[in-house]
Structures are given as structure tokens and as C-alpha cells.
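Quick one: sequence plus nicotinamide-adenine-dinucleotide SMILES, need C-alpha cells.
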Amino acid sequence: MKTILVTGSSGLIGSEAVEHFDRQGHCVIGVDNNMRQVFFGAQGDTTWNLNRLKNSTKHFQHANLDIRDRAALDELFKANRFDLIVHCAAQPSHDKARDIPILDFEVNALGTLNLLEATRQHCRDAVFILMSTNKVYGDSPNEIPLHELETRYDYARPQDSAGVNESCRIDQTLHSLFGASKAAADLVAQEYGRYFGMNTCIFRGGCLTGPSHSGVELHGFLSYLVRVALNDGTYSVFGYKAKQVRDNIHSHDVVRAIEEFAANPRPGEVYNLGGGRGNSISMLEAIARIADLTGKKLNWRYVDEARKGDHICYISDLRKFQSHYPEWKITRDLDTIFREIIAAQRAEHSFGSAR
Ligand SMILES: NC(=O)c1ccc[n+]([C@@H]2O[C@H](COP(=O)([O-])OP(=O)(O)OC[C@H]3O[C@@H](n4cnc5c(N)ncnc54)[C@H](O)[C@@H]3O)[C@@H](O)[C@H]2O)c1
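Reply:
Sure thing.
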């Protein structure tokens, strides 16, 4: 039995990790102070997910801690010898960071450094997973030549077809402040691997999704899109003729990647992790697919200005991770993901809001 720390344990990826490792009989400790509610208001409140975890797990313990609080982290690391740290706590929104640059940097960059240093001081052999983001590449994926199809943009050259790989440049490009704070965290986590030889891993996520997302307009695109459709709201699409492409990966497949790395760590490695080409979809295509699957036509409006630092077409090249960890594969396709999100949100409706 291993002792596992999951930060951001009430969020999408954190909660999936908690359930997965708890099911296997490990001792899982979660840190989450519901800061998603501070960032996004009532719709971002993750209390429902914490309550769900308390009911669905056997050994899970929750600590209402802030990862910015070094003294509290030190106590936690003194009291528990962790074998694995899955670091998912973050300010996760690209657009939100503009309003709260200092808080965003403190949570994303300093919070990560606090955790890395606590790991080095107390359990330096532990595996440390950082959930980073494709926003560390800033706008540079937008330099890849594209062609415009009827419902989406796609890469124009055959050599780009598998998507963006880890050699994409991360500096001298526009990131958004979120991309910059996550890039700082990403680099420092690499350094704890390369300089200190610790078992760090950096996953640069595409769109991570699943039924446990507390989707809000500024973060959690598929979850929020379904929410708007089921509630007869109006969704705003920003720029790129609604043909921007995202690759989507179910939280279960993210946690399986974490598990594979933890079993056979390679210090300081960086991997792109998204749904890949098979799970890529444009806004126009997602809107149409949700209408097919829910039977409800989504109202949406087009704003003719793209979000600053937004990708036009982003598909994660998964080949590096797959070559290092051949047992891992995508197990949930897009329709399965949509169906799960729709079913979860319908259940929430019919039982009254659990959130
Ligand atoms: N969801 C995506 O599409 C996506 C894409 C790329 C990268 N990522 C990264 O993956 C990670 C997990 O994302 P997610 O979608 O599960 O996010 P999420 O917002 O659902 O979960 C993050 C959790 O962290 C908690 N938290 C925030 N600040 C905290 C603090 N200071 N102390 C303690 N807890 C705190 C929040 O309350 C929330 O429950 C994040 O690092 C995010 O940047 C996510």
C-alpha cells in the first residue's frame, strides 16, 4: 500500500486520481481548499465533488489546505511519507489570470515550487507528477501552417498530422499570464528532475475533461458546453470562425498515464497528453454533436475576436508518451466522453442540484 498525495483533489483530475488509487487500496490524502469557487464563483464550487468522494472512497482523507501555505505543507509532509504526489491544484484559466495575475502566479508557480521543495526535503524518492498545460507553448502552435476545411482547421503539412510534439518552442511567444505561470511551474519541475535527479514528470495537457468537471465559461469547455445546452443558455464562441480544434482526453486516461509513469519513472520528462487526433473536435463540430446526442439545439453567438493567446488548432502528439509507456492508450472516445458528461449533468438535474 502506497501513500499518495493528490493536490486539487476536489477538481476534475484530482478527484479521478483519488478514486482510482483509493480503489486499489492505497492511502490517499487530498489537498483542496475549494479555490475554484474563489476563481469562478458558485458554479466553480467543488464541494459537491468532495462530498461525492467522501461517499465513494474507503481510505481517502481530505485536508483543507492552501498550497501557498508552506508551513502547513511542511506539517503535512512531516506527518506522512508520500510515495507519489499528483499535483493538480491550480488556477486553471487562461482568461481569468488577466484579472488576478499575482494570485495566479502564487498558486501556479509558487505553489508548485512549495510542493517540489517539500518533496525534496521529506520524501525525495517519491514520484512527483505536475499537471502542466499546452499553454506553455503560447502561440507557437499557431505558426504551424493550417488549411481551412468546412467545419474545422487542420494542419496543412502531412508531417504535422500527428500534432504538436514536445520540441515545440515555449519562449518568445504570447502565452497569457496563465501560460507564463504554468511555464514557470513546468520548468521548475523539470529542474527538480534534471538538477536534483528527482522523479518528476510534466504532463502538458490538451483539453482534459470528464463528468466530474465543475465546468464554467472560463474553464472546462465540453462540460460547460453541455451545461449550456441542457439549460437552454447561450454559448459564446470567440473567433476563428468557430473552427478552432481541441483534442479531448477523459480524466480516466489522464490518471492511467500518471499510473504508468509512477510505476516506471523517468526523471524530469515532459510529455504532451491530450486526446490526440482521434479525440479532436472543432467548436462547430462539438456544437452539432451535442445537439445530436441531447436532442437539444444549442444557442450560440459568435464573437468576432479570438481570445488572446488562444490556439487555432491544437492536437497533442502522443507518440513520445506511447513509446515510453506502450501499455497506455486512449480508452474513451469522444462520443463516450460526451455521453458520460450528458448523463452526469442530466442526473444532477433530475435529483435537484447536488452542486
Ligand atoms: N482541464 C483542462 O482542460 C486542463 C488542460 C490542461 C492542463 N490542466 C491542468 O491540470 C490540472 C488539473 O486541472 P482540472 O481541470 O482538474 O482543474 P480543476 O479546477 O477542476 O481542479 C483544480 C482544483 O485545485 C483546487 N485549488 C486551486 N488552488 C488551490 C490552492 N491554492 N490550494 C489548494 N487547492 C487549490 C481547486 O479548488 C480545484 O478543486 C491543473 O493544473 C490544470 O492547469 C487542465
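The pocket of nicotinamide-adenine-dinucleotide is lined by residues 8, 10-14, 31-36, 46, 66-68, 88-90, 92, 107, 111, 131, 133, 205, 207-208, 213 (CB under 6 Å). The radius of gyration is 19 Å.
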